[in-house]
Specification:
Layout (H helix, E strand, L loop, with lengths): L20 H33 L5 H15 L3 H15 L2 H9 L3 H28 L2 H9 L4 H16 L1 H14 L11 H12 L2 H30 L9
C-alpha cells in the first residue's frame, strides 16, 4: 500500500478558510453529543411511560404499549430516519409540513425525534423488565399503605426498577451516541459526517476516521465510567453492586 500518512492534516485549514480540520471534528462531536443527549431525554421520558404502561392491570393500555414497542423496535433505524425526514413533513397539514422543512436545523430536529422514539422502545422494554423483576409484594404493600396506583408507580415501583436497570440503560445510552452517526444520511454534520468531509477534501481517509474512532471510544469510556459511578451510588443493598 503506497499511502502517504499526514497526521498534521488536522492543523491545516479546511476549504472554508474559517477553521482547521481539527475544529471540524470538534464541531461534529458537538453535534453528535447534542443529538444524542436531546434524543436520550425523549427516550427516557417516553420509555418510562410506555414501559410502565405495559405493566398496568388494564389490558388495552398494555396492548397499546406493546404495539408502540413493536413498531419502533422492529423497523430499522435508517428506514425510520428517512421516514421522519422525507415522509413525515408530507403527512402533516400543509402549514406544519412547510414549517418543519424550513427549519434551519431540520436534520438535527429530525435526528433527535427519530433517535428519541427509536431508543424509547428499547428503554421501555428495560423498564418493563425492571418492574416485573420486583417482588409482587412491593405493589401490594404500597396499595395496602393507602397509595393509589399512580403513587405506587411514582414512589415505589419506578425508583426501585431504575436502580435495577441502570446497567442496560448504560448500554442504551452508548447505543444512542453511536446511532447518531446514521443522521449523516439526512445531512447532519455530526462526527462521522465531519470525518467523511475531511476525507473528501484532503484524501487523508485513514487519519480522519482514526481520529473519529478514537473520539467515539473516549466519549463512550467517559459515559461508562460515569454510569458505573452512578450504579454504585444507587445500588440497592444486598443486590449486585450494592454493599
Amino acid at each position: 500500500m503506497n499511502y502517504q500518512w499526514n497526521w498534521n492534516i488536522f492543523w491545516e485549514m479546511s476549504p472554508d478558510g474559517v477553521q482547521t480540520y481539527w475544529d471540524t471534528l470538534l464541531s461534529g462531536l458537538a453535534w453528535t453529543m447534542a443529538t444524542a443527549l436531546a434524543g436520550w431525554v425523549i427516550a427516557l421520558a417516553l420509555g418510562f411511560a410506555v414501559g410502565a404502561m405495559r405493566t398496568l392491570p388494564n389490558r388495552w393500555l398494555r396492548m397499546v404499549g406493546t404495539g408502540y414497542v413493536e413498531l419502533f423496535r422492529n423497523v430499522p433505524l435508517l428506514v425510520q430516519m428517512f421516514l421522519w425526514f422525507f415522509v413525515m413533513p408530507e403527512l402533516l397539514p400543509q402549514a406544519g409540513g412547510d414549517w418543519l422543512k424550513s427549519l434551519p436545523n431540520a436534520p438535527f430536529v429530525t435526528a433527535v425525534l427519530c433517535l428519541g422514539f427509536f431508543t424509547s422502545a428499547r428503554v421501555a422494554v428495560q423498564v418493563t423488565a425492571g418492574i416485573e423483576a420486583l417482588a409482587g409484594g412491593q405493589r401490594l404493600a404500597a396499595l395496602a399503605l393507602g397509595l393509589d396506583l399512580p403513587q405506587t408507580y411514582r414512589f415505589v415501583l419506578l425508583p426501585l426498577a431504575v436502580r435495577m436497570i441502570l446497567p442496560p440503560l448504560t448500554s442504551e445510552f452508548l447505543n444512542i451516541i453511536k446511532n447518531s452517526s446514521v443522521a449523516l444520511t439526512i445531512g447532519l454534520m455530526e462526527l462521522t459526517a465531519s470525518a467523511r468531509a475531511i476525507q473528501e477534501f484532503s484524501f487523508q481517509v485513514f487519519e480522519a476516521f482514526t481520529a473519529a474512532t478514537l473520539i467515539y471510544v473516549v466519549v463512550n469510556l467517559v459515559v461508562i465510567a460515569a454510569m458505573r459511578w452512578l450504579e454504585h451510588r444507587l445500588a440497592l443493598p444486598g443486590t449486585l453492586g450494592g454493599r
